[in-house]
Amino acid sequence: MTLAVVGYASLDYSTSTADFRGVDATSILHRGIASVEPGVGGIAHIVRAATATGADTEAISWVGPDSLGSRWREGLIASGGGTAGVSVTGSRSPSATLIEIGTGGTICLFDPADCHPDSLTPGQLDALAASTCVILTVSPRRLTEQVLDAVPETATLIWAVKHDDDAYTAELIARLLDRADVISFSEGERSYVSQDGVAPERRATPGTLVVETRGSRGVAWAFASADGAVRAGSIPVEPVAADDTTGAGDTFIGTLAGLAAQSGPLVSQSDEDVAALITSSSRAAGDLLRSRSTSGPTVGAPLKETL
Questions:
Q1: Greatest Cα-to-Cα distance within the chain, rounded to the nearest angstrom
Q2: Do the beta carbons of residue 109 and residue 97 sit within 8 Å?
Q3: pLDDT at 78
Q4: pLDDT exceeds cutoff 70 at 157
Q5: Higher model confidence: residue 307 or residue 209?
Q6: At what angle do helices 44-52 and 67-78 cross, to 10 degrees?
């Protein structure tokens, strides 16, 4: 059993503002970003969470031969993830500036750098061929299409939706809805995966588990069918006050993927077992946030309630 995690690497600079005042206006940051060490982000959060469940996890991603790329790979290794599927090319590694807004939402300014080739490497193809479960997040469109070609038909495919119009076309979203065994998205991304107004619970292949995170209002799930959602359920979450929610959503889906990789087909499991799996994933995300809040939030920082 091997879980492959596919998507962008990133070194993250995070900060927050109580009130984003729009373009051509000044918004005040609560944490400086120029002098801080970037966090190991992108799919590293997912790899770390999946590995914590006991899953044998391999990263498939791309970095440059610079200090940021070395830092990112060292972070993966420290969390127990494999790096055989990490391509090192170009001259710079990806990075992101994340600005959390106290009134809701996050601004992500992502620099993909120049380390993404036109094709998957032989090492990445080998890692995909050996996988029994693959979680696909956002990556360059041409590489996402090649990943879909390479994933074994018998492997479980989990699509962690990211609203990124550069990464997906309508045709690619349709292909993912047809192939995925699990689709996970936030409440705000529902319209993105509802093609022509058709909900993913009706559009996806029957038997696909559709998971929607709703922040402090919990997590809803259902299995897809031709008639729409069936076996629908939900779990509550314990709200956590945190001024830095970076990686919480990825920890949720990483835990879900790690547990799913070690179980049988989810559609064959009872509703109670599916609820237990999702509850464990939500708890892992909450534990991450609580670990950051033990010393209390930064003075003046906005408080958010999330998973």
A1: 53
A2: yes
A3: 96
A4: yes
A5: 209
A6: 10
From 30-44, 53-67, 226-240, the region with the lowest mean pLDDT: 30-44
**What end-to-end distance do the CA atoms of the chain give, in Å?**
28
CA atoms within 13 A on the CB side of 306: 30
Q: Is 105 exposed, middle or buried (0-12, 13-18, 19+ CB in 10 A)?
A: exposed
3-state secondary structure of 123: helix
Higher-pLDDT residue of 216 and 159 is 159
Residue with tokens 């193809």: 125
Torsion sign (Cα): 10, 63, 167, 222 = negative
Tokens 């070690």 correspond to 262
Residues 126, 166: Cα–Cα separation, whole Å: 27
The closest of 204, 217, 152 to 176, measured between CA atoms, is 204
Residue with tokens 């179980």: 263
Q: Can you tell me the distance from the alpha carbon of 16 to that of 172, in angstroms, rounded to the nearest whole number?
A: 33
Residues 81-133: pLDDT tens digits? 999 999 999 999 999 998 888 887 788 899 999 999 999 999 999 999 999 99
Q: Go through the chain and tell me how many residues it has.
A: 307
216, 187 Cβ separation under 8 angstroms: no
Task: Give the H or E element holding residue 159.
Answer: strand 156-160
What is the rounded distance in angstroms from the CA atom of residue 176 to the CA atom of residue 267?
18
Phi/psi-derived region of residue 64, left when phi > 0, alpha when psi is between -120 and 50, beta in every other case: beta
Q: What is the pLDDT of residues 79-90, one digit of tens each?
A: 999 999 999 999
- Rounded CA-CA distance 293/30 in Å is 16
Question: What are 185's strand-pairing partners?
Answer: 212
